[in-house]
Design goal:
mainly beta; seven-stranded mixed β-sheet; about 0% helix; four-stranded antiparallel β-sheet; 11 strands; about 120 residues
Length: about 120
């Protein structure tokens, strides 16, 4: 019943920008913290950014100042605005939420930063 559907990935040049979206259904979205993760080839999955139900945010050191996480509770959607993109940002990006001690993940969206 709980579903997370991601969109917005693609190919972008270094220094460019991209906005990812994750739409949730089957849950009372407005009270749930939401998190973005990413996984690059050959690396472990890492936390990128999180946002609480009232809009308090935290970021990984590698993206702080370049990425912005936000949410629109009326649309049941969390966003990740990415700017000043670097080749090392290339990864599959996932959104995640926890409900009744279980983690729910989106399908992932590919972001490739290359010239």
């Amino acid at each position: 019943q709980v579903q997370l559907v991601e969109s917005g990935g693609g190919l972008v040049q270094p220094g460019g920008s991209l906005r990812l979206s994750c739409a949730a259904s089957g849950v009372i979205f407005s009270i749930r913290p939401m998190t973005w993760y990413r996984q690059a080839p050959g690396k472990e999955r890492e936390l990128v950014a999180m946002i609480t139900s009232i809009g308090i945010t935290n970021y990984a050191d590698s993206v702080r100042g370049r990425f912005t996480i936000s949410r629109d509770n009326a649309k049941n959607t969390v966003y990740l605005q990415m700017s000043s993109l670097k080749p090392e940002d290339t990864a599959v990006y996932f959104c995640k939420m926890t409900l009744q001690s279980r983690d729910y993940w989106g399908q992932g969206t590919q972001v490739t930063v290359s010239s």
